[in-house]
Design brief:
Layout (H helix, E strand, L loop, with lengths): L1 H28 L3 H61 L2 H27 L3 H18 L26 H6 L1
Helix pairs in contact: 1-2
Protein name: CHMP6 protein
GO cellular component, one term: multivesicular body
Family: Belongs to the SNF7 family.
Length: 176
């Protein structure tokens, strides 16, 4: 608000400076040099006030930026605080001993499963493997019994016979 008020003050001063300059020219034309000189001194003083006002505005803007940045920092710190509290609650729920116990149980379960896998994979001996392969070959040979191949030669031309008896061939129907 102060910045806005200072900006309005600057506008009023700037407009006043232009009027006083025009008035000083008029006084010089009218031959009133001392009054013009007094008016120019007043104008110079107002210009200095304008510079001071600009410095004050600059200081206010810097302060506003600092305040805004501090507010952002406060939000970050509050977020860190909440995150830290959340982590502490999670650590209370799950202690290091609990995590170590869970990891140990998981490793035991993995080891147990590995032992089961080894027992299942290692339960067959080489003789069992050979017997399984022989049985597989025997089953495969049973399935491969094919019908006998005819010994007579195949005819050169296949006779055209309709699949349904007493039905004319399609070529004959189209021709009539």
């Amino acid at each position: 608000q102060q910045r806005d008020k200072l900006r309005q003050y600057q506008k009023r001063l700037s407009l006043g400076l232009e009027r006083e300059r025009a008035l000083a020219r008029q006084l010089l034309r009218d031959g009133k040099k001392e009054k013009a000189m007094l008016l120019l001194k007043k104008k110079r003083y107002q210009e200095q006030l304008l510079d001071k006002t600009e410095n004050q505005i600059s200081n206010l803007e810097r302060m506003v930026q600092d305040i805004e940045f501090t507010q952002i920092e406060m939000k970050v710190i509050e977020g860190l605080k909440i995150g830290n509290e959340c982590l502490n609650k999670m650590h209370q729920v799950m202690s290091i001993e609990e995590v170590e116990r869970i990891i140990g149980e998981t490793q035991d379960a993995v080891e147990y499963q590995r032992q089961i896998d080894e027992l299942l994979a290692g339960s067959l001996t080489d003789e069992d493997e050979d017997a399984i392969l022989e049985e597989l070959n025997a089953i495969t040979q049973e399935q491969l019994e094919l019908p006998e191949v005819p010994s007579e030669p195949l005819p050169e031309k296949i006779p055209e016979v309709s699949p349904i008896k007493n039905r004319p061939k399609p070529e004959l129907v189209a021709a009539s």
